Amino acid sequence: RTISKPCVKNFFTVLLILIYLLLTAVAGFLAYQTISDFLEKVNNPVMSVTYKEVASFSPPGIILYLGSAQLLSCRHEFHNYIPPLVDPGKPQAIDCVIKEVTYIGPFTNKTEKRALVVRGPSDVRNKELIFMQFSCNETGEDFSAITYMLFAQFSDLTDRSVPTSFMSQCERNCSMWTFSGGFRTWVKMSLVKTYGKNNESVEFRQESALVKFNDHRPETERNSQLYFAVFEWRDPYIQEIRLIVTANPWSSIAILCGVFMALFKAANFAKLTIQWIIRMRKRHKRNKERELNQVTNN
């Protein structure tokens, strides 16, 4: 038994409709996936790290909590050179800019805190450093150390009409470090700026190295503990961290346009196919009626 041509045409028409329905489903899934990926990238930006070279830094602020210790000397040196010590443990010249601030700590119950704020180095090209010497006569403590903090610009303190509030804010937001007695602590600072969606933050990172102090003072003068601290910039680079949205709206729009165009073409083809099937059925029905009329007339 042979298969009629209308039957074959109907079969292939239905097959094409099924194929275009499958392609329409794939196009719809692709559109959904494209929109989901775009929203995912918008809501989860990635971090981009760049390094900005500078000729000099703004002088940072070095906050020192001395307690019972005393600042004996503070001077600027260059090119990583520190002259040999002369009369360690005795007061010497101080050529640093220092500001003393007394304020109420944010984490203590109405307890006054006294801090010395030293203007830090800025000339990174000539390897400027700050060398400080401290002395503490208390020997009954289990551990001896001086606590310090760093903030970005010394002028942030001097420009404030109420420096006490600035100090409280620094203590609340900045990290605290220490350097120990009997050692020279060499601190190399680096600056990291993070740019968020709505704000900007500045963070200090540091590398420190300890060298033991060989105390050659007479035995009668060794009743005080000596501290030595050096602060300098590690390198002339500022690390900048930015949040970047990797989603490209134009590529997503292009993909969606292609998807919607395919959907439109598929819908248009399905419409024409259905119209063609209806015409074919009407024609087949007319042919049947004509054949029946001819049989009846005969």
UniProtKB/TrEMBL annotation:
Compartments, as annotated in UniProt = Cell membrane
Identify the GO cellular component terms for this protein: chloride channel complex; plasma membrane
Q: Does the keyword Cell membrane apply?
A: yes
Record keyword Transmembrane present: yes
Indicate the transmembrane segments per the record. 12-32, 250-278
Q: Pfam families this protein is in?
A: TMEM206 (PF15122)
User: InterPro entries this protein is in?
Assistant: TMEM206 (IPR029366)
Q: Name one GO molecular function term.
A: chloride channel activity
Q: Which UniProt keywords apply?
A: Cell membrane, Chloride, Chloride channel, Ion channel, Ion transport, Membrane, Transmembrane, Transmembrane helix, Transport
Q: How does it sit in the membrane?
A: Multi-pass membrane protein
Reaction catalysed?
chloride(in) = chloride(out)
Q: Which family does it belong to?
A: Belongs to the proton-activated chloride channel family.
What is the protein name stated in its UniProt record? Answer: Proton-activated chloride channel
